[in-house]
Amino acid sequence: SVNEPAPQMHGSIEVSAQIADTDKGLLFDGSAALMLDLDLNQGIIGIENLQLQAQGTRGATPLSLTLTANLAKLQAQNAYVSSGEARLITNDGNDQFALSMADLQLDTTQWQAPDFHVYFAQGSGQQRLELDLRSPVTAQWGAKTWQAAHIQGSLLLPGTGNASPLSGQASIDWVNEKADFELFARLHDAPMSFKGKTEGFAHPQIKGQLTFGRLDLLELQKLSILQHVHLGHTFNDHEASSANTQEDVASASEGAVSDTGIGEAQTQTETTSESAPEEKTEEITHEASIVDSQTNDVQSQEAAKPQVAEPVASPVVWIDTNEGRFVKTQSVDEATTQTVDDQTPPLESDTVTKPFDFSVLNGFDFQGDIIIGELVYGNARLLQVKGPISVKSGTLQMPKLTGLAYESHFNAFASVNAQGHWNTQFKATNANLDGLLKDLGATASMGGKLNTQINLYGDDFSLDTLNGQIGFAVQQSSLYGLNINDALRAIEKGQIPVQTPQSKSSVAKIQGIATLHAAKVNIENLAVAFDEFALKGNVQIDLKNQNLTGNIKGNTNRGLAVQAALTGVWYQPQLSLDANAIMRANGITPKPVVIDKPKEKKPSGWDRFKNFIKDRL
């Protein structure tokens, strides 16, 4: 309806309409009201107080659309909008998308908005995600380029409670599909930044540098929600969303580098070939374990076990070249790989929620560097971590990481693919064992220097899927529970030694190889060298309750057969002896326990005087 129409007019216009799309299940009922200033002589159209309201549904999802504009002037060569906003709301108000601009100016060459504002929200409660960005924006019509020179805003991730600030700048070339970005934010209560370039929008090829002040691996789950953030998923009905989720899972399965999920020999081979220059055979130094004899024992025992579905972690090869030192993993045994490859994993239902979701790696390629000031996993931490990083064919690789691990330098390799299968190798020398154990929860000081080489792989960073081996050697440390030298001397005399949690034994060296599988750790041939003798044995650790149990045995330099028990939490074990069992095994007769009777107290002189008077009276 138009009131008082004329070539020159100032009047109100009201519009009502219904829009339906049966193919998409879309139905809208809308109404609008505005004041129209029309001057056809000067070619000016003015719109004031535009208010558009539309309610509808898409499938079973309710939708609400709002469009407002205070003042707009339209001419043949230019236009001006003082302020305007479009807002789409669905899912009972929990999901929103809003776009607003102020002082928008358009002409035949460009448009400018000193205040361009985008708001996106999804979910509710602890699952709430909010992105709020605003910046001056300049766009060229012919070149189709956008320039956001001063981005300011915030990002609220699920489970965080507080929004993190965002800032930076961006330049986008829509014709050549190129963009330059420089973004600054905060993650895990520390600054982070990204500076780089991208080519292509359907499958971006990104180059740049990623910097984290602090990165907590256990909190990366909060970032998994970002891969599901797109308008198609947000505003589809439940059935369409479920179908899309299944298609995404199928696509991720087809695009993954490997479906074995246990180390991916192919991935590791590609990593080596891309990161390593050609080297001579004599330059390769094999350091797969701390002690060669222990390595052979563990490998032979693992090979003898029947029906092993997963291969033992491959040994690590450290290669020295002119460009530095890096790692590669030898390929998994061909027969074992074939057995695992035949086990085709089923597609996961959309009702299954993984702790971590890495299928976003299928959506882009990346080449650049990563710098992490503090890398945290639980209470353990690495410092000044840096190295090259790449994402290709759905696999993220960091082939040559370096940094500080408890006052020592370390070298590492890490890889994770779109299905969440990951593997890593790590080597450190002369690390401060006492600092590491205290971060893990130890209350007593054990001292010591740690040399370790780690080769682990798993799925989604869960303990149940953790596999691999850890070789370790500890120098000049301590074990609490008793002083073993004093205790054995007492046992040789037939006496029961005193054992207290505060007593400790000096240890010259502890070494072994730990095999991890299904949240269990088995350390075979654990060697503990005390000052005067050494004991060997086996130890088991339950990673879920962190308890350690095991025994070590051997003979002292005086020929005494000894068996000792190790118990308690693995990061602070307690050493104990069964004195009676050791005496029986060595034919030592225990000495009878002498109970000292309290001596009869003699009366004092004053008591004797009182007794004398008492007796006389």
Assign an overall shape. Answer: elongated
The Rg value, from CA coordinates, equals 36 Å
Number of helices: 9
Mean pLDDT metric: 79
> Which strand-content bin applies to the residues?
over 45%
Given helix and strand content, the structural type is mainly beta
Question: What does it look like?
Answer:
The protein is mainly β and 617 residues long. It has helices at residues 231-235, 238-255, 265-275, 292-304, 334-341, 433-440, 484-492, 579-586, 605-616, and strands at residues 8-21, 26-39, 44-58, 61-74, 79-90, 95-106, 110-122, 129-140, 145-156, 164-173, 178-187, 190-199, 205-212, 215-216, 284-286, 316-321, 324-329, 365-377, 380-392, 395-404, 409-417, 421-432, 449-459, 467-480, 504-517, 520-530, 534-542, 547-555, 561-567, 574-577. The protein has a 27-stranded mixed beta sheet that branches. A 3-stranded antiparallel beta sheet has the order 15-16-17, with helices on one face. The radius of gyration is 36 Å and the shape is elongated.
What is the secondary structure topology, with strand pairs?
Layout: E1 8-21, E2 26-39, E3 44-58, E4 61-74, E5 79-90, E6 95-106, E7 110-122, E8 129-140, E9 145-156, E10 164-173, E11 178-187, E12 190-199, E13 205-212, E14 215-216, H1 231-235, H2 238-255, H3 265-275, E15 284-286, H4 292-304, E16 316-321, E17 324-329, H5 334-341, E18 365-377, E19 380-392, E20 395-404, E21 409-417, E22 421-432, H6 433-440, E23 449-459, E24 467-480, H7 484-492, E25 504-517, E26 520-530, E27 534-542, E28 547-555, E29 561-567, E30 574-577, H8 579-586, H9 605-616
Parallel strand pairs: 13-18, 14-18
Antiparallel strand pairs: 1-2, 2-3, 3-4, 4-5, 5-6, 6-7, 7-8, 8-9, 9-10, 10-11, 11-12, 12-13, 15-16, 16-17, 18-19, 19-20, 20-21, 21-22, 22-23, 23-24, 24-25, 25-26, 26-27, 27-28, 28-29, 29-30
